[in-house]
Amino acid sequence: MIIARILGTVVSTQKDERLSGKKLLIVKPINLDGTDQSGYVVAVDTVGAGYHEKVLVVAGSSARLAEGNKDCPVDSAIVGIIDSFEVNKK
Amino acid sequence: MQLARVIGTVVSTIKDESLEGRKFLIVQTLDADLQAKGKPQVALDAAGAGIGELVFWCRGKEASFPFKRDSTPTDCTIVGIVDSDSHVFKFRNP
Hints:
The complex is a heterodimer.
Chain A: E1 2-10, E2 23-29, E3 41-45, E4 54-59, E5 76-87
Parallel strand pairs in A: 3-5
Antiparallel strand pairs in A: 1-2, 1-4, 2-3, 4-5
Chain B: E1 2-15, E2 24-29, E3 41-45, E4 54-59, E5 76-81
Parallel strand pairs in B: 3-5
Antiparallel strand pairs in B: 1-2, 1-4, 2-3, 4-5
């Protein structure tokens, strides 16, 4: 899983029918100090996340195991909204 | 599976139902010499690991196997704790 922040939304009308009703969000992976990493991912939202929230994004076939994503053609899903995270490197 | 060091924790209230009660840990992936390599990941804990511990983790769909395997969305799970740093042995090149 990676930590990412929500950057925006995607609107799509013509799509696989198993994706209808799903919210697609653009997320940007971030470093542990809060700075952005390069690149972005379009992920299916399963928890009701909103703009600028930090979220947990799961990638690969595990994304299909998220609530409501069974047998959907997705490889990236938002599975949690992060309240806080803490790092103490030794 | 790969080695990693647990370096932090993540707190999340709103999450997939199947993740409730599970512990999220931030792990720094390591190379064979136990030096940090690659970007840190958030891993689900299946072994009871704590901060600072050396662990091994698995990625991909298999990461959900320690839990309810058809409904736990995780691609990175800690599946074991290495006894200590000195319990990692490497063979010398012939």
